[in-house]
Write a structure and sequence with these properties.
The chain is mostly helical and 298 residues long. It has two domains: 86 residues, Tyrosine recombinase, N-terminal domain (DNA polymerase, domain 1); 123 residues, Orthogonal Bundle (hpI Integrase, Chain A), CATH 1.10.443.10. It contains 13 helices and three strands. It has a three-stranded antiparallel β-sheet with strand order 1-2-3, with no helix packed on it. Strand 1 and strand 2 form a beta hairpin.
Length: 298
């Protein structure tokens, strides 16, 4: 059983070229299933049936594994059994028809407009790090960029004259986004300093040694800005969420926000309508004289 599992994981690595992170997740999930099979004293993968797999899912859920993690595990099992069926080792899929328990969808954390202005409107020193970090924060919030899009962004993707940036998002899909005036101004201050650092490639955001900033470096700089300016934890995706929430509150154009964020499915974007309602409900509860909700004891 271990040999067949190892062969499948090697195929994922060599032929499908999955990322190291995804491959690690598949390996972890399928090893949970293998350990369960050994505990159940199953002789081969063909002996694992749907009732047993359902029992494993229930056990993992009881021990705190979330709905998303269980959905990924079932997806890994389906992929593995497709492979086993093709190889002639099995003729069934124990995950067929199984669905993970529904989990509560968590709303993304955002900054309100005032807190965002507080973050971005502070005094900026005229030096390499301060100008770079300000340009990074402004562009991330102005365009709602993902962390990976910030890391991979190159100079030739920027058109400051027309106020546009072309980014490559998930699935290698490109989109052209407008860049706000404050972000253009911050970039105009940063780019001359960038040129003096002898960049090793075309990266927009580089270190003082001229190398492209990696994901961890950008996360750290955003986190430090959050602590310094707001006294709270901050990460790049919170700026992306704030961009989407503020834009939707002002425009009420869900389709446009979907295009700007680069979401393939508008259902992903609809999470921000819940954020907007949550804000309205809070205002209502705090201001309306008849808004006091009943408690469970009433």
């Amino acid at each position: 059983m271990q040999t067949q599992l190892d062969a499948y994981l090697e195929q994922l690595r060599s032929e499908r070229q999955l990322s190291a992170h995804t491959l690690s997740a598949y390996r972890s999930d399928l090893h949970k299933v293998l350990e369960f099979c050994l505990t159940e004293q199953l002789a081969d993968w063909n002996a694992l049936d749907t009732p047993r797999l359902r029992r494993l899912v229930g056990r993992l859920h009881l021990h705190g594994l979330g709905a998303k993690s269980l959905a990924r595990l079932l997806s890994a099992v389906r992929g593995f059994y497709q492979y086993l069926n093709r190889q002639g080792h099995c003729q069934h899929d124990p995950a067929s028809g199984l669905t993970p328990p529904k989990g509560q969808r968590r709303l993304p954390k955002t900054l309100d407009a005032d807190r965002t202005l507080q973050l971005l409107n502070g005094v900026v020193e005229d030096d390499f790090l301060a100008r770079r970090d300000q340009a990074l924060l402004e562009l991330c919030y102005s365009c709602g960029l993902r962390l990976a899009e910030m890391v991979s962004l190159n100079i030739d993707q920027l058109d400051l004259a027309d106020g546009l940036v072309e980014v490559c998002g998930k699935g290698n899909k490109t989109r052209v986004l407008p860049v706000g005036s404050k972000a253009r101004e911050a970039l105009a201050h940063w780019l001359p300093l960038r040129a003096l650092a002898n960049p090793t490639d075309g990266a927009v955001f580089i270190s003082q040694q001229g190398r492209r900033l990696g994901p961890r470096a950008i996360q750290l700089r955003v986190q430090q800005a959050g602590v310094r300016e707001l006294g709270q934890h901050l990460h790049p995706h919170m700026l992306r969420h704030s961009f989407a929430s503020h834009l939707l509150e002002s425009s009420q154009d869900l389709r446009a926000v979907q295009e700007l964020l680069g979401h393939a499915d508008i259902a992903t974007t609809q999470i921000y309508t819940h954020l907007d309602f949550q804000h309205l409900a809070t205002v209502y509860d705090g201001a309306h004289p008849r808004a006091k909700r009943r408690t469970s004891n009433e």
